[in-house]
Amino acid sequence: MVKCCDAVVENFPAGKLDAAGIGASAMMAQNPDLVIASITGYGLSGARSSYAAYDIAIQAESGHMSTTGPHPST
């Protein structure tokens, strides 16, 4: 699929695409002109880089949930 794309935007935890064999280097081998944007909730390195960033978790950690209230399922 990346052979016909101009850009890829992904938001997996750091290293997940590489572990699956479809990381940036694999994509670039198929399409050297590809633009790749990687968005992570906890950065590419550090203690939490392998964590997935879910909306409810980020709200709770940042204190923003105190202004929006609890999740409807709680």
Notes on the protein architecture:
The chain has four helices and two strands; from the N terminus they run βααβαα. The protein is of the alpha+beta class and 74 residues long. It has a two-stranded parallel sheet with strand order 1-2. Helices cover 31% and strands 11% of the residues. It has one domain (2-42, 49-68).
- SSE run: EHHEHH
What's the total count of β strands?
2
Q: What helical percentage do the residues reach?
A: 25-40%
Q: Domain count, please report it.
A: 1
Subunit arrangement of the protein:
single chain
What structural class is derived from the secondary structure elements?
alpha+beta
Measured distance between first and last alpha carbons:
40 Å
Strand order of the largest sheet: 1-2
Which blocks of ≥5 consecutive residues have pLDDT under 50?
none
Alpha carbon gyration radius? 16 Å
Mean pLDDT score, rounded? 87
What is the number of helical segments per DSSP (H or I, 4+ residues)? 4
Strand content: 5-15%
General form = elongated
The largest β sheet comes out as: 2 strands, parallel
Task: Using brief descriptors, characterize the structure shown.
alpha+beta; 11% strand; 31% helix; 74 residues; single chain; 4 helices
Write a compact overview of the structure shown.
This protein is an alpha+beta fold and 74 residues long. It contains 4 helices and 2 strands.
SSE topology sketch:
Elements: E1 7-10, H1 16-19, H2 24-30, E2 35-38, H3 55-62, H4 65-68
